[in-house]
């Protein structure tokens, strides 16, 4: 309650003579909270970010936001800030995420057409961000960070969530698999990487609301300079919504063709680009399973448990597709016998 009172006092000083009400807008997997600010006189609503300074640093959010805005992406505008207290007053990009919009669409031709349009907009925003890339601006998505992320899988998913102790042989196999995955990931061309460019972090902006072009882009504070396929994996192998592989492949080809015309450093052959995408997916799926397990066991957040089967399915499909990942597939079979996997019909 003390923190909320601090926030209200800061808002009163920042917006003198503007009576307003606060309502929870959203929360994420970090310690940040967001509130929607509604005004008595009907002025446009705002969003206030509450990022406790002892838990969160808002400076990366501010820095990345400036880079992405300069690139042409639609990110929240910073209207007021207090770094010492960890408060930011932001423009409101609305309350409809891509996920909410896509889940309301029917599964027929109209729904797919609508989804294709939304994803085309998202790819346009992503390409703009990537075209603005240059080294030395954002932290490197280097070997150490990629590996630390994958290590969350044995630590939190295997040991803590599944309660499985790996044998020495399995540990050696997993280490070898990580090395193979890293070799492909680190050989990719590099660009700015949002790192969570998916349906919960893209906002549907209605044209009549004067908020600009789709999508609104949020939750970008962890952005890095790294593999060009990473954000595409986040977008198309989304932990929260599943699409037919043919639909994804069509959009991926369209991106690859457009990227070549824009001069982005994609592979000359689509088959090589698609392999990078698949192997980058393996790295991300291992990380996400570890993170979801950690959010539950360490932080008491059980909302992500329902999303684990889809992520495991992505991981299993990729391991089946690439022979070099066969040993990893055997471990997955021990952890999650395939007959209990969630099935998907296309």
Main sheet strand line-up: 1-2-3-5-4
Give the H and E element order. HEEEHEEHHHHEEEEHHHHH
**SS-based class:** alpha+beta
* Topology-level CATH name of the largest domain: Aminoglycoside 3'-phosphotransferase, Chain: A, domain 2
**Record field, number of beta strands:** 9
From the structure above, extract its key features.
about 350 residues, alpha+beta, transferase activity, single chain, 5-stranded antiparallel beta sheet, Phosphorylase Kinase, domain 1, two-stranded antiparallel sheet, Aminoglycoside 3'-phosphotransferase, Chain: A, domain 2
Written account of the structure:
49% of the residues lie in helices and 12% in strands. Helix 7 (230-236) crosses helix 9 and helix 9 (270-297) runs antiparallel to helix 10 (308-321). The relative contact order is 0.12. The protein folds into 2 domains: 2-91, Phosphorylase Kinase, domain 1 (2-Layer Sandwich), CATH 3.30.200.20; 98-340, Alpha-Beta Complex (Aminoglycoside 3'-phosphotransferase, Chain: A, domain 2). The termini are far apart. The protein is an alpha+beta fold. The chain has a 5-stranded antiparallel sheet with strand order 1-2-3-5-4, covered by helices on one side. Strands 6-9 form a two-stranded antiparallel sheet. A two-stranded antiparallel ribbon has the order 7-8. Strand 2 and strand 3 form a beta hairpin. It comes from Thauera chlorobenzoica. InterPro entries: Aminoglycoside_PTrfase (IPR002575), Kinase-like_dom_sf (IPR011009). Pfam families: APH (PF01636). Keywords: Transferase. One of its GO terms (molecular function) is transferase activity.
């Amino acid at each position: 309650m003390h923190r909320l009172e601090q926030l209200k006092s800061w808002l009163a000083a920042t917006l003198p003579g503007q009576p307003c009400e606060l309502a929870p807008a959203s929360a994420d997997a970090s310690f940040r909270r967001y509130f929607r600010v509604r005004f008595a006189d009907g002025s446009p609503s705002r969003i206030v970010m509450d990022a406790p300074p002892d838990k969160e640093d808002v400076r990366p959010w501010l820095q990345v936001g400036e880079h992405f805005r300069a690139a042409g992406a639609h990110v929240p505008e910073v209207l007021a800030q207090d770094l010492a207290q960890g408060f930011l007053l932001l423009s409101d990009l609305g309350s409809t995420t891509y996920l909410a919009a896509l889940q309301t669409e029917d599964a027929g031709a109209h729904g797919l057409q609508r989804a294709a349009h939304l994803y085309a907009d998202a790819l346009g925003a992503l390409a703009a961000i990537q075209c603005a890339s240059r080294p030395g601006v954002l932290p490197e998505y280097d070997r150490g960070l990629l590996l630390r992320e994958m290590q969350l899988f044995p630590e939190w998913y295997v040991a803590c969530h599944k309660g499985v102790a790996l044998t020495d042989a399995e540990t050696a196999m997993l280490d070898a698999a990580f090395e193979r995955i890293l070799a492909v990931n680190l050989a990719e061309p590099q660009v700015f990487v949002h790192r969570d460019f998916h349906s919960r972090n893209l906002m549907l902006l209605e044209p009549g609301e004067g908020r600009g072009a789709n999508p609104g882009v949020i939750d970008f504070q962890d952005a890095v300079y790294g593999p060009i396929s990473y954000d595409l994996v986040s977008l198309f192998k989304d932990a929260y919504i599943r699409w037919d592989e043919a639909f994804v492949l069509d959009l991926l080809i369209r991106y690859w063709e457009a990227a070549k015309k824009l001069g982005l450093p994609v592979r000359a052959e689509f088959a090589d680009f698609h392999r990078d995408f698949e192997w980058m997916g393996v790295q991300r799926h291992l990380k996400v399973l570890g993170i979801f397990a950690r959010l539950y066991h360490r932080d008491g957040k059980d909302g992500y448990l329902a999303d684990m089967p889809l992520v495991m399915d992505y991981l299993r499909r990729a391991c089946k597709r690439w022979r070099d990942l066969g040993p990893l597939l055997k471990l997955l079979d021990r952890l999650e016998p395939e007959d209990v996997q969630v099935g998907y019909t296309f």
